[in-house]
């Protein structure tokens, strides 16, 4: 069972650490590993723009680099600076982050929870957000 409210709260906690002087768009993510551990991530921007890392990938790279291999779900929250929780739009993972998820997650089972607050969220499988995914299987 996924504790969705806890995962969303952890994403909001991570959002506080984002480094976003260029966009002022603040994203937080909380990734649940099969071990039960939660890995938090925020977006980290850069003056050269392309080195910017999204919150979701920050969480994934932290987890992979700490030995976690299987993943259950990720919660994502994001809004422009100053927008209160529950207001603003849902922040869905960008295409690059979806591709990184496809590298490490089961397309049919991995859950992506996109939240405005702990009460208002959408839930998708990775396959729903990345149909016809290109994965390592294509290279066999
Ligand atoms: N961003 C994320 O962190 N995750 C997403 O899925 C969408 C975009 C960040 C990247 C950049 O720092 C800011 O949001 C604006 O694009």
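^ structure tokens above, recovered residues below v
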């Amino acid at each position: 069972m996924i504790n969705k409210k806890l995962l969303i709260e952890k994403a909001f906690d991570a959002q506080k650490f984002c480094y976003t002087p260029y966009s002022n768009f603040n994203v937080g993510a909380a990734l649940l590993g099969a071990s039960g551990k939660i890995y938090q991530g925020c977006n980290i921007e850069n003056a050269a723009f392309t080195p910017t890392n999204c919150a979701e990938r920050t969480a994934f790279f932290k987890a992979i680099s700490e030995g976690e291999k299987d993943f259950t779900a990720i919660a994502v929250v994001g809004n422009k600076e100053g927008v209160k929780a529950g207001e603003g739009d849902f922040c869905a993972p960008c295409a690059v982050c979806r591709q990184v998820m496809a590298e490490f997650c089961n397309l049919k089972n991995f859950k992506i929870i996109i939240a405005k607050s702990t009460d208002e969220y959408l839930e998708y499988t990775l396959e729903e957000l990345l149909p016809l995914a290109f994965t390592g299987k294509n290279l066999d």
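Residues 20, 23, 25, 27, 43, 45, 52, 54-56, 93-94, 97 surround tetrahydrodeoxyuridine (CB under 6 Å).
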